[in-house]
Amino acid sequence: MRTCRRRQILRVVAVAAGLALAGGGVALADDPPAPGEAPVDEKAEAERIAALIARTRSTDLETRRAAAVEAASEQHAGVTTTLAHLLSDPDPEVRRSAIEGLGKRTDGASKKPAAAALAGRLPRLAEKSEMKDELLKAVAALHDLAQPVAIKALLDDLPAIAEPEVLEARLMAVANVPAAQAIEELIDLLARGRRGADLLRRHTAEALRSATGQNLGGNPDAWRAWWREHDEDFDYAAAAAKRREAEAAAAAKAERAGNKGRKPPEKKPDPPPKTD
To answer: What is the pTM of this model?
Structure first.
């Protein structure tokens, strides 16, 4: 039975590899290795990935946790599918590793299914307050993936969210998607805002500022007028570069503030001189 299961896993890996090749995300077998790289033994690599996937399905918790951590750093298409399955693992540590791994996908062909899997998990995570940390990690992963497929899930039921941290994270994840849909959905959300929903309006306006580099406040008519003039020639790459600069500056500021608050280590007194 183990042999049969191993063959099934190998077939999954082979199919996933074929899909990745079709998407242009992996070097072809007859492509020369990059300078300084040793040629890859494709059979050995397939067996290694198959063994890793098998360990993620182990009934032993520690084995599964270790395999999930290892899988999170793998970019193989078959591993991306496995990480998506691990989002529903009963163990929170395994789920967290899966979320982090999906958020680190670098290949364009893997980013969309990774984002789709995380977006599909959001409603479940939002149901229980004890899963807030896991929810924020999933939203952060979607922010980094920046895929249009996640926009709808990120915006669902936003008026019902009372926690500023969650609200801001979801809106900023939408703002980080380099697509017209993200900007247009944020403008529509601003226009639909109810009176008294100041928190939602404020964070939506801030998300639009982050997405576009413009500061038009909470006036949806002003945003619509501006977007009509710029939607065809808007530079998404330049806006994304500005967001990365702002995020790096904010991180550096937070680190400086943290270091400032730390007490310097106390200097130990010199030991007394030895006497004969």
So the answer is: 0.78
Distance of CA 170 to the CA centre of its chain: 12
> For residue 133, what is the domain's CATH number?
1.25.10.10
Question: What is the C-alpha to C-alpha distance for residues 177 and 205, in angstroms, rounded to an integer?
Answer: 16
Count CB-CB contacts under 10 A for residue 223: 24
Q: How many domains does the chain have?
A: 2
- The DSSP secondary structure of 218-247, one letter per residue, reads T-HHHHHHHHHHHTTT--HHHHHHHHHHHH
Pair 56, 72: CB distance under 8 Å: no
SS (H, E, C) 116-133: HHHHHHHHHHHHCHHHHH
Report pLDDT digits (tens) over 112-167.
999 999 999 999 999 988 999 999 999 999 999 999 999 999 999 888 888 999 99
- In-domain check, residue 19: no
